[in-house]
Design a protein that fits this description.
Elements lengths: L11 E3 L5 E3 L27 H12 L2 H12 L4 H29 L3 H9 L5 H34 L1 H4 L3 E2 L2 E2 H18 L3 H30 L16 H24 L1 H4 L5 H34 L6 H5 L5 H23 L1 H10 L6 H14 L2 H4 L3 H30 L24 H15 L17 H4 L2 H19 L19
Antiparallel strand pairs: 1-2, 3-4
Helix pairs in contact: 1-8, 1-11, 1-13, 2-3, 2-11, 3-9, 3-11, 3-17, 4-5, 4-17, 5-7, 5-13, 5-14, 5-15, 5-17, 7-13, 8-11, 8-13, 9-17, 14-15, 17-18, 17-20, 18-20
Length: 517
Amino acid sequence: MSIVTPPPTEAQISHSDGRVELAEGVDLTDPRFTNEDLLPVPVERRRWTTYNFLALWVGMAHNIPSWTLASGLVALGMDWRQAVLTIALANVIVLVPMLLTGHAGTKYGIPFPVFARASFGLRGANLPALVRAAVACAWFGIQSWIGGEGIFLLAGKLFGHSWQTASAIGGFPWTQWLSFLLFWVLEIAIIYRGMDTLRRFENWAAPFVIVGALGLLAWITVKAGGFGPLLNQPSKLGWGSGFWKVFFPSLMGMIGFWSTLSLNIPDFTRFGGSQKAQIRGQALGLPTTMTLFALLSVLVTSGSQAVYGTPIWDPIALAAKMNSVAGTLFALLVVLIATLSVNIAANVVSPAYDFSNLLPKIISFRTGALIACVVGIVIFPWKLVADPHVYIFTWLGVVGGLLGTVAGILIADYWIIRRTHLELDQLYTPGGRYWYAAGWNWRAVVAFVVGGLLAVGGSYGGPFPTGGVIPFLQPLADYGWAVGVASSLVLYVGLTRLAPPGAPAEPAPVEPAPAAA
């Protein structure tokens, strides 16, 4: 049994390619749930092609944290084959929810927080939106710190030793804080120009970053006279029980790396020219790019071991060893573009919409983006990336578990309960089909709380107790993302079938517009 699909309404138009838009004359004006940035994108403005989505993923995947993912796994005892295999499998898995949730964006032209209203309710959608926004703000801070670090280290090659040995503030040279601030301001300048600027930026940034990474590979290969011994270095874990104990939490952590985008990918697919474009673009862009980039990082690091006697996993630190001023400047440009590309696309667009959804009357897309930029600083991102064990098992694992829970609910509601049918105008209408009880769908909230508890309640290690926060749930902690998706999906479907939503409630009164001056 599923919710009965209502007949087509006069409020929306279905096109032959399956995409839907609001009918002419439909006016959505309630300021509590509507602003220009949250409204469905008209079909005529949905122009992103397969290349645009491919370029988006190439631009987002080619960044410093992606490069160092393999290094974190090797630091945990894997060899390069095991690390690349783990990353490849994780990205094939996370592609599935990415395509399932992305379908709604292309079909209806709506961003993630509006999509979440169908399952959580018009007000309840703020719960998953703010969880996603909080994670994005943390990621924004991490990437901004890394971008600033790139400016700091590589600028030191140009300005001399005094740049890197400047007096310290808060444990870091003041010049590093200045570099962080400069990178942060540069991001804001691009963000403020909006989504069309982002699309154009990604189109040329993607091939440029690829050329830069291949250039780094060519440089280290020439210096090394071939690749070093790292490729022949055996795994410290073997392929027995020691490996599998590390593999599963690492796999969940790697999935957690992009589980953020598996939720808010409608923020981008809402501009898709067709379902085929978004499916092909994402399938070609995500798993292939991440796997090849991980392999590239291993090859370059292998060369660094042959040249310098120790593996240098950080490409910024490696580029800083160049003797050529021109080479250093080029490396700095590549680092800046790579980090800008992923940070703006993956970590600003989502919270901008999420914060706007919270108070549409006050917060626009640009205002939401600025809020995200500020929050990204105050969470002390430099502490999150200091320890690879905490970074992979704690940060990525917990994030993946929580966001997997939301993904399970969205997929269950859209694909199982509603069979991909939504009523666009009702997503913005208090008292309508998605109003539930005072704007909240308790079924989604219960599935989120219970699923989240099962997914991350047993978290252990790092800041958590060694026996797990909730000891009897510890066995589930290593499979957090999978537990979150499966448990919330089953719970939501079960609760919806046991207690189907009733008829829409009486519409809530619209707040009167302020009187003209």
